[in-house]
Each structure stands twice: as C-alpha cells, then as structure tokens.
From TrEMBL:
Domain NADH:flavin oxidoreductase/NADH oxidase N-terminal per the UniProt entry, residue ranges: 7-342
InterPro entries: Aldolase_TIM, NADH_flavin_oxidoreductase, OxRdtase_FMN_N
Keyword tags: Flavoprotein, Oxidoreductase
UniProt xrefs under Gene3D superfamilies: Aldolase class I
Name of the protein described by the UniProt record: FMN oxidoreductase
Highest taxon of the lineage: Bacteria
Single GO molecular function: FMN binding
CDD domains attached to this UniProt entry: OYE_like_2_FMN
Amino acid sequence: MHEDSVLYSPFSFAGGKTAVNRIVKAAMEENMAADGALPGEALYSLYRYWAHGGLGMIITGNVMIDKQAMTGPGGVALEANTPLAPFKRWASIIKSQGALAVMQLNHPGRQVFKAMQGKALAPSAVPLSMGRHSKLFATPKAMTCEDIHDVCQRFVASAKQAMQAGFDGVEIHAAHGYLLTQFLSPLTNQRQDEWGGSLMNRARLLINVISQIRAVCPRDFIVMVKLNSADFQRGGFEFSDALAVVERLQALGVDMVELSGGSYESPAMQGNTADESRLAREAYFLSFARKMVAHTEMPVMTTGGIRRADVAEQVIEQGCTMVGLASALATTPDLAQKWRKNWTYAGYIPACQWRDKTLAGLANMATVRRQLRRLGNDLTTLRAPTSWWSLILDMLQRRKLTKRYLAQGQKQHSG
Ligand SMILES: Cc1cc2nc3c(=O)[nH]c(=O)nc-3n(C[C@H](O)[C@H](O)[C@H](O)COP(=O)(O)O)c2cc1C
C-alpha cells in the first residue's frame, strides 16, 4: 500500500484553495465541443470519468479566447458574451468529487490550420516551417498594437467568465508555440517596438495578461502559466529566459508554473527517447523543473511522459509541487486510483515509431483523441489502438468538424 506516498498529500495554494493530492490531469484539447463551440454532453461524459478518477486537480483542454482563432475544429471558446450555463455545468461536473477545476486559456497565434479560414495573428509575419507540412497552416499577419491590446482584453474577459462559471482558476497557455510563446521567442518575435527586442519586452504581453487577470479576480482564484522550459530551436527561447520570466511571474502572484517544452515545429512535449535514464525518459522536463525549483520559490508542476507511480512520486520528491499527466489519463482516466491499489500499474502512452516524425506525432495525438472520443461516448478505451487507423479516423473526424465550424461561421456572418 502506498497510501502514505507524498503523491497523495494535499497542497494548499497561496490564495487558500487546496488540492486533495498532487496528481493533475494536464490539458488535452478534446475537439469534442457541441454546436457554438460550447461544452456539451460528450465533454460532460469525458470529464465525469476524470472527476471520479481520484485526481487533485483537473485542467481542461485549451479553451479559445476568440472564436475566430481556434487551435483546431471542435474546440471550446469562451468570450465575454458567451452564455455561461454550459460552462457552469462543466465546472460542477469536474468538481463533483473534490478535484479543483482549472480552465486553460489559449490563443493559437500563427498555429492555425489553413482549412479553418480563421484569423492567423503573430507578433511578426513569420510562417511555420514544417517542411512539406507547412502548407497546412495559414500565413500569419503581424499584429498591430490594437490587435495586441484586444488579445490581452480577451484573455482577461475569458478568465472572468471562467471564474463566474465556477472554475477554481485558469491556466494561461504560454507553451507549445502558441501566441504567447511566439511573443517570447526571438525567432518568431522580430518586432522593433515595446513588444519585441529584450526578453522583458517579449514577455510584456504575458505579463500584462497576468497582471490584469490578478487585478480583476480574487486572490483565491488560481492563476497558473504553462511555460516552455525551452523551445528546443537554435536561437529560440532558452531555459535561462524561462527562469527570468518565472521570477517576474512570481512577483505578479502567479500560483504555479507548469513546465513543458517545444512547439509544432519542434515537438519536444512528445519526448526525447534518446535519453539513457528511465527517469528522464519518463518525465521529459524533470531536469529543467529541478533547476527551476532550485532558483525560485514558485511552485512548479511538470508534465510529459509520466505513466508510472514511482516516477510521479520522484517528480514530487525532487521538488515539484504537482505532477501532470495527459496521454496516460486518456486510456486510464482512473490511473491515480489504480495506483493506490496497484503501485506498479503502468499507464499507456502511444509511441508511434514511423520514420516521418511529424506524421508519427500526429498519429500519437490522434490515438489519444480517439480514446477521449470513446470516453465521451461512454465506451471503454482501447489498450493499444493501431496508429494508422487512429490517424484515418481522426482525419475524417476533423474534416467533419471543420465543415461544421465553417458552416456555423457563415451562419453567424449572414445572421
Ligand atoms: C491529444 C492531445 C491534446 C493536447 N492538448 C493540449 C492543450 O490543449 N493544451 C496544452 O497545454 N497541452 C496539450 N497537450 C499536451 C499535454 O498537456 C502534455 O503536455 C503532453 O501530452 C505531454 O504529456 P503526456 O506525455 O502526459 O501526454 C495535448 C496533448 C495531447 C496528446
């Protein structure tokens, strides 16, 4: 029995809210929204499994702050005037068994699929460079100062809405190459004004978003930031930059930083299997997290590769406050509970070995999303689904959802 493991000890945030244990469901975009980019029955079913899964905190998949700028079809959006009833229901389901509910907020910036025909904004007009896959993405427009202020207001409005819907907090997505990351990286931010140049200029949008959310939400409302430990691209955002940004965020009252890494161009969040040690192979960003813990007082959570209890426990023992799991909870939503009875139970993370690494990464994501859809339909998950069939099903599903998104957009414009 491992009931006395540090994994199952509670943690109280600076504002007062308490997570019953240290195990967190990390954000996974579900692409399962109902009409109007709202939460609906499929998402409620899926989150019921996690609510009953013995987790300390549940972070939603990224929720968009602008319906015209979506990371993918079937995503959820929460704007200033979005009706709150479906979000209230979502929050109450997530919290029903005692987990904290945190909504992740995001803006994709240039990481917008061309087929979605949405806004593709970026600090500078630098398109994605993904070889033959680049053509899937829209060409971004360099943002004006008005665009930047609009994005900042949208983050704040969405956070207020999340609070009014009953969420315990928000996580601002500043990782994985999305808009806030694009501002942070000198490769994508080539601006000459107060939003570009020095690290603190590049961090200005993130800092403004955080300080304004802190100003309008009470102190017990949890504010987290998901940040890259690095972009893993030459000349990009580096770990020393992450340390400096975290110092600033701490002064602004951020409650916790979730450390991840990479982007669509360099998908480090899917792991670097070349590493020799099992701990590094199964907790991709732990060495960065350890260094961050040594440098700051900020509570740190790390996500990436974790599927075993002993690894999750070591993440906490080595100084992290919480440990995030994503893929493994798609196949086994009650993994945290299973570990209580069977400490050596290993969760499943798909690891497609195709030579085209981009395609293999897409297949892994597709496999996870397939499991999420099954849970949303109250079907059992599959132990080891085939990559190619998952990818085909995912492509068909995304095509259908993209058509729906475009049709609804046209309805809005004509109405
Ligand atoms: C299908 C899928 C969707 C994801 N969507 C998000 C997201 O919306 N926001 C986010 O911060 N990370 C997202 N991620 C990344 C995960 O949060 C996590 O950082 C990454 O999968 C590594 O953790 P894991 O090895 O436990 O899966 C997603 C991952 C997958 C597989």
